[in-house]
Specification:
Blueprint: E1 2-3, E2 14-16, E3 21-23, H1 27-37, E4 48-57, H2 64-71, H3 82-93, E5 104-114, E6 118-125, H4 132-139, H5 142-145, H6 156-162
Parallel strand pairs: 4-5
Antiparallel strand pairs: 1-6, 2-3, 4-6
Helix pairs in contact: 1-3
Amino acid sequence: MDIFLDPYSTPRAKLNSKTGTFYVKGASEHKKIMKNMIDQFNIICTTTEIMVITYQKTPKNIKNHELLLAEKGKIRPHDKDWDNLGKTYSDMIQGIVLLNDNLISDGRVQKFYSIKPRIEVYIRYLSDFDSEFNMKKIMSSKAFKNLPDNVKISSKLLKERKT
């Protein structure tokens, strides 16, 4: 999945002193972007791997001879924290493509420069549960119980159990 935006990282969560809850500034806007990109997808409820590749805008002050090196991935960005980038895009798909980001068992973030800024998100997931234990854990989760009836589920076993 390609997202044609300039990559940005999520700011740290802040405490709302009135409600006593944590919130992340901009998170709802991120979700709206993702919902507009995805028509319909079987929501993933199994062990998942994610790779996020960000292509940040090539700096204007980079020297001409370094521009090609940057485009080829030989000069890499150091200005955004990789973990915040990964969290931004795993949160963005949570509840839309992925039931919960706690299903991610393996994640990777790569940062590059490009004259064409974008984010590429690659997702691999199991077609079914790896264990009865994990299946029961997911099915008893609040996120699973709150799924609307019209949401399609990625696991064959879950489809059978939910009906």
